[in-house]
Structure formats: C-alpha cells, structure tokens
Amino acid sequence: MRLLTTLFRLITLLNALATLSGLRGLTWSERLAVPLTILSWHQPAAGWQAHLLLILPALVGQLILATARRRDLDPRRRLHPGRYPDRVITRLDLPARHGPVPALHIVPRGGATTAILVTHGSGCDKTFYAWRLVDALIERGMAVVLIDLDGHGESPRPQAYPQMVESVADPLRWLQQRYERIGAIGMSLGGAVLARAVADGTPVDALALWEVPPRLRLNSREYRQVQIREALAIIQPRLLHLFTDGAIDHVIRAWQTSGIRATIGTWDLFDALNLPDSLHILGRHHTPLLLVYAGRDAVVPPAAAAEVAALTADWAEYHYLPFASHISLPIDLACINLTTDWLQQRLSRLTNAANSPDYRLTRG
Fold first, then answer.
1. Do residues 153 and 170 lie in contact, with contact meaning Cβ atoms separated by under 8 Å?
2. What is the pLDDT of residue 355?
3. Which residue spans of the chain are classified as CATH 3.40.50.1820?
4. From its phi and psi, is residue 64 left (phi > 0), alpha (psi between -120 and 50) or beta?
5. Are 109 and 86 in contact (CB under 8 A)?
6. Alpha helices (H) in the chain, listed in sequence order
7. Rounded distance, CA 29 to CA 16, Å?
8. What is the DSSP annotation of 241-262?
C-alpha cells in the first residue's frame, strides 16, 4: 500500500510541476494539482529509496494520464481556416505561372499593411510547427502567408528547378499587390529558394534566412549520423514550451508530413540554387537581411555557417544561437522572437520613412 501511495505522490508532484510551469499538455488536472499534491504528501509512504525507484514509472503514468486528459489540445487547430478572436485564416491557391500554390493567408482581425511570406524546410509543409511563429507575427500586427513548396504538402507539382523558385516569386508578387510592405522568412531549403527568388529580381523589403546551407553533400553514413545527432539535440528543456500548446501525441503527430515528390534531388537542388551567389547579389542590392544559424546543427556544420557569415559580414545581421539544432531552431522562442522583432523594426522603419514629407517629395 505504501508503494502505491508513493507512486501516487510522485505522479501528483509531477502534475503540480507541469501546472505551475504552464505546460498544459503535460497535465491531467490543473485545478486540483496543488491540493492533491499536498494531500498525497501527508499520507504514509515508503522511504526515499522507493521514491527513486518509482520516479520512472511515475513519469510514464503522468504522461499517460496527461495524454488521455488533453486529447483536445491540438496546436495545429490554430492553423485551421476560420475566424478567431485575433485573426482570420483563409485557405487559398495563389496564382503562379506553373500552377496554383497552396497557401494559408492569416490576417489580424484589425487588418494589416505588412505581410510576411514563410517558406518551410525540406520534407516539411506549410503548417510544420508553424503555430508559434504565426502567433508572434500576428501579435506584432503583421499578416502571414504560409505556402507549400513544390513537391511538398498539398502542392500538385514535383520539386524541380527553376520552377520551384518561380512558385515562390509569384506569391511574393501577389502579396505586393495587397500590402504596403513585404517581408519573408525562409527555413533551410525554403530559405535557399527565397534567396534565389529575391536575387533573381523579386523585391522584398526585408528577408530573414534560418539555417540555410551554402551547399549540401552527405553520403548515407553521414546522413544517418546527422539524424542521430539531430534527434539527440532536440531533447532539451528549451523546447518544453511546445507542451503549453499541445498534448504529447499532438506535438509528435505534428511531425508527420507528406514527404517529398521530386524530379531533382535535394543535394542537386541546393547546388542549382547557389546560396553564395544569391547572397552576393543581395549584398550588391543592399537587401535588408537577417541570418540565424544554430550551434548544434548537424546539417549545417560550423564551417558552413562561418562561410555564410563571412560572405555577408559587411552588410547583413548575423546571429549564431549555440543552444539550437537544425530541427529545433525554427521552433525555438529565442529565434522566433529575434526574427519577428527584427522584421517589425525593419518594416516599421520603412513605413515611417515612406510617410515622411521628404520621402513623399522625392517620390513625387
């Protein structure tokens, strides 16, 4: 009996810690969390050795109870089309020269004059762990457009070059017809495609690139090592914030995507996109650029990140987050807040300049 009491004591303690930390997805009772913990710790229990032995079973029990209790806590629902207190989400097929681009158009309820296009990484889709980034942009009064790259998600076309670049450039032009200022965020492959589109002449007012490799070459053995290193790197307390939004099973299921459909391999695609050349052109045109790289990135090694930093040293803003990995960087709050604050400051500065009398005089 004392062992059962000890197990219950540990479970209630874990539940109370999750509740006090705001991790709703890891709790099975919020209102009774503290009273149950106090009650259980007033009951006779086994010694400290039993507490140590039962920590793991208690953790398993806590996770099972939390998963069953929080079945409806799915953060992906926040990206479903519809009207919400702070935003309106519309599912669109944006016009493009090679066929429609599947998209979600997310607008603050009060409207917006600035919009941000977001392009995902290889093997992902437009909603892949995107809810926190969308929340941050909406809170700052900016509209958001999430698109599926060719060969990903709902896109009817395979991954191909140069069609993929044009299927990003055309949504940017669609936004330019509707908003005063346009920014863009590109992750890994999506960043390389965005950089190429802007370098080829598609104008944006500010561009943020996350963990974009200048090139990508991995053999099968290296690829397996990368997968292992990235899996280990993602296990860190910094990412527990995901469980404020969703239950364990929903956070895990958010990882599931449709895979890639391609006529060109990802390695060859990075070569064709030629990030170093894109950066050279962006620098020549003085494009406002933010670069963010991760210190524990197994896909983009330190030497590759240093190469990008050297290419942009004189004109871009570069940040290196030592605690993040390739997988964790796009969902890390430090990266999200850094990027959204930078975009807001850059685009607001341009809006203020456009409204100044001197600017209107020169434009007239």
1. no
2. 57
3. 78-357
4. alpha
5. yes
6. 2-20, 33-40, 48-53, 55-69, 131-139, 163-176, 189-199, 220-233, 248-253, 266-273, 275-284, 302-311, 333-355, 357-363
7. 8
8. GGGGTS-HHHHHHTT------B
C-alpha–C-alpha distance, residues 161 and 197, integer Å: 12
Give the span between the Cα atoms of 32 and 339, in whole angstroms: 38
Question: CATH homologous superfamily for 78-357?
Answer: Alpha/Beta hydrolase fold, catalytic domain (3.40.50.1820)
What's the token pair of residue 201?
């002449």
Q: Give the Å distances, CA to CA, from 330 to 3, 87, 345.
A: 43, 22, 20
Query: For residue 264, what pLDDT is reported?
Result: 94
Q: Is the separation of the CB atoms in 295 and 320 below 8 Å? A: yes
Dihedral sign (CA 166, 171, 174, 179): negative
Cis peptide before 162 (omega within 30 of 0): yes
What is d(CA 140, CA 135) in angstroms, rounded to the nearest whole number? Answer: 9
**Tokens matching residue 14:** 């874990």
Is the separation of the CB atoms in 110 and 143 below 8 Å?
no
Q: What is the rounded CA–CA span in Å between residue 262 and residue 157?
A: 8
Q: Mean pLDDT by 10-residue block, N- to C-terminus, for the chain (364 residues)? A: 85 93 92 86 79 91 93 92 96 94 97 97 93 96 97 94 96 96 97 98 96 84 73 77 89 82 93 97 96 92 95 96 91 96 91 52 35
Inter-CA distances, 3 with 33, 38, 44, 219, 307, Å: 21, 17, 10, 51, 58
The number of beta carbons lying within 10 Å of the beta carbon of residue 250 is 21
